[in-house]
Amino acid sequence: MTSDASEIKKAAELLRQGKLVAFPTETVYGLGGNALMGDTIARIYDAKGRPQFNPLITHVASLEEAQRYGYFSGEALQLAKAFWPGPLTLIVPRNKGCTLSLLVSAGLDCIGLRVPAHTMAQTLLIEAGVPVAAPSANRSGRISPTEASHVAEELGDRVDMILDGGPCEVGIESTVVDMTGPAPVLLRPGSVMLDALRKVVPEVQPLSAQPEDFKSPGLLASHYAPSKPLRLNAKDVWAGEALLAFGRNLPAGPHIIENLSYSEDLQEAAANLFRMLRALDVTCARSIAVMPIPEKGLGVAINDRLKRAAAPK
Ligand code: TXA
Ligand code: MG
């Protein structure tokens, strides 16, 4: 059942006290903690089993609040004004005297900031009145949660409270753009797509245009991974495989099947992706075959997550 106003109030109070609260955003559920409190941030890394070199996104209620902690260049301001509130994270330099815990930056001199659009997240941030650091509410390297029950499966009693906002509308994590270099760089594809970013700031570069060693701590090759092996671009189904399908033209054979979208709607596919991977992961199949997803529009972000899910661990 979705959480009501009194539960949101309680969650806000817990956040102020330094407790951990999982909450819904339009992308995925976050594991939130007061970004001003170092010991709370340390607990987030611990609860996720997350490597300490991988920085966290700080969630705030407005651009004005974001500017208290980070420096926004003209281009950063343009992107924030165009896409906030929404599924876009901007990496910007820390302001002098920035009071956010150094741990959220994991030793870098920049911070990831995002103003989520989800109503419950907005209400929570406004009521809490503190910046909230929140990585996706899964154990490190695993599939991001898109429903409250996924968070409970992943984190159990490592989290003090879980707010339930129903299934997440977007279903894959926010687009991440690094604003700290000479030109903005798209670090993680998401539902705010490269063309849309370039309509506002034409200089935005895709990550592939950058040298291999470019700073992108969170972009570990293996990520978002189910425990069963994944086989991508499958045109047929092998013995022992379950099928993650897309569209109506299914190969013969599989008994265990989830379909991302019968009508080949990429938005629907993104919203279903992590829930269906989870569902297939707990079946008796040995591995998961994934049908090809077109590499256009949201398909770029979906394929990015699938490639990481299939990468050797
Ligand atoms: O949609 C989302 O972004 C969700 C919801 C909860 O907001 N959060 C999320 O957080 O996906 P997480 O921690 O799973 O992914 C954050 C990504 C990581 O790849 C991290 O390395 C990168 O953002 N990141 C965060 N702060 C950064 C910084 N200061 N510099 C470089 N990369 C940063
Ligand atoms: Mg994550």
Account of the 3D structure:
The protein has 313 residues and is an alpha/beta fold. Helices cover 30% and strands 16% of the residues. The protein contains nine helices and 14 strands. The chain has helices spanning 5-17, 38-48, 63-69, 74-83, 119-128, 148-155, 194-200, 266-281, 299-310; strands spanning 21-23, 30-34, 57-59, 88-93, 110-114, 132-133, 161-162, 175-178, 185-188, 205-206, 230-231, 241-245, 257-259, 287-290. A ten-stranded mixed β-sheet has the order 7-1-2-6-3-5-4-8-9-10, with helices on both faces. A hairpin with a 6-residue loop joins strand 1 and strand 2. Helix 1 crosses helix 5 (119-128). The radius of gyration is 19 Å and the shape is globular. The mean pLDDT is 94. Magnesium ion (MG) binds next to loops. Threonylcarbamoyladenylate (TXA) is lined by residues 25, 27-28, 30, 54-57, 89, 91, 105, 108, 110-112, 114, 134-136, 173-174, 176, 188, 217-219.
